[in-house]
Amino acid sequence: MKRTAIAFAALAFVLAGCSTTSPDVIKREDAQRMSNVLDGVVLSTRAVTVDGTQSGVGAAAGGVVGGVAGSTVGKGKGAIVGGVLGAVAGGVAGNMIERGATREQAVEILVQLRNGERRAIVQAQGSEPINAGDQVIIVTTGGTARVVKAPPGSRG
């Protein structure tokens, strides 16, 4: 049973590193790509939660771990039943672990662009807090956008 707990902890650790909305993390495929940049001013921010993913990886891994652990209960048909029940329970637990490990606290940022248009972007809090009134830039690359503070001396 101790091995099962260790396996689930390892699964949660791996899944936690799978995804982020942080403006400080750039996807490898977005490196060295031209990005669109818009100047703006932050109108408001609010805390939000980005729901966790359910890709099936957690359920599959949990099912395997649960099946192996359950099959050690009893012998013969008891081991088979234990394995099946363990796989089902492990799949459900693995799915819940994946969803919880990939859930993220974030911020919704409402930005007024220089041309008067408004944009709302949800992202994890970066290394620099962004507040109402801050001069920012919206960087859009490959369909994803992030808000960062404008460099000193830039127009907003």
Please describe the topology of this protein:
Elements: H1 2-16, E1 36-50, H2 57-71, H3 77-102, E2 104-113, E3 118-123, E4 135-141, E5 144-149
Antiparallel strand pairs: 1-2, 1-4, 2-3, 4-5
Helix pairs in contact: 1-2, 1-3, 2-3
Give the radius of gyration. Answer: 22 Å
Catalogue the unreliable spans.
13-18
The biggest beta sheet, please? 5 strands, antiparallel
> How far from one another are the termini?
58 Å
Oligomer: single chain
Please give the order of strands in the largest beta sheet.
Answer: 3-2-1-4-5
Number of helical segments?
A: 3
Question: Which of globular, elongated, flat, extended, rod-shaped describes the shape?
Answer: elongated
Number of strands: 5
Written description of the protein model:
With 156 residues, this protein is of the alpha+beta class. The chain contains three helices and five strands, in the order H-E-H-H-E-E-E-E.
Q: Any descriptors?
A:
156 residues, alpha+beta, OB fold (Dihydrolipoamide Acetyltransferase, E2P), 5-stranded antiparallel beta sheet, 3 helices, 5 strands, 28% strand
Quick structural summary:
The protein is of the alpha+beta class and 156 residues long. The chain has 3 helices and 5 strands. The chain has 2 domains: 72 residues, no CATH class; 72 residues, OB fold (Dihydrolipoamide Acetyltransferase, E2P).
